[in-house]
Write a structure and sequence with these properties.
Elements (H helix, E strand, L loop, with lengths): L2 E5 L2 E4 L4 E8 L6 E8 L6 E6 L7 E3 L7 E6 L4 E6 L8 E9 L15 E2 L3 E6 L1
Parallel strand pairs: 2-11
Antiparallel strand pairs: 1-3, 3-8, 4-5, 4-9, 5-6, 7-8, 9-10, 9-11
């Protein structure tokens, strides 16, 4: 089993930055593709970013966050991060960390049903 615990959410003004962290425990996550989803009130859950298990090999970003968000991981700390800059009110949502085992080191899952493990979520609120 893998447990994912998110942190780093909060309230920030538009244009500000936040860094979300997701600490994984339960087993080594060296072969786990990781990602972030978000869900705003009244909206469908959407994929925000993903990173393959081999660091630096492949990343994915949804169009609305390209150039503003960066996903990266620290294997020594079993942690994946989402650096969010130039935040907008439309980024307001609960953000979820996700993970799945993968043999393919370029695999960056984009759909919720591709992931096995989910964190409990952390709230991000961007005020205008």
């Amino acid at each position: 089993q893998v447990q994912l615990v998110e942190s780093g959410g909060g309230l920030v003004q538009a244009g500000g930055s936040l860094r979300l962290s997701c600490a994984a425990s339960g087993r080594t996550f060296s072969r786990f593709a990781m990602g972030w989803f978000r869900q705003a009130p009244g909206k469908e859950r959407e994929s925000v970013a993903a990173i393959s298990w081999r660091s630096g090999s492949s990343t994915y970003y949804t169009d609305s966050v390209k150039g503003r968000f960066t996903i990266f991981r620290d294997y020594a700390k079993n942690t994946v991060y989402l650096q969010m800059n130039s935040l907008k009110p439309e980024d307001t949502a609960v953000y979820y960390c996700v993970a799945r085992y993968s043999e393919d080191y370029y695999y960056t899952p984009k759909h919720s049903d591709e992931y096995t493990y989910w964190g409990q979520g952390t709230q991000v609120t961007v005020s205008s």
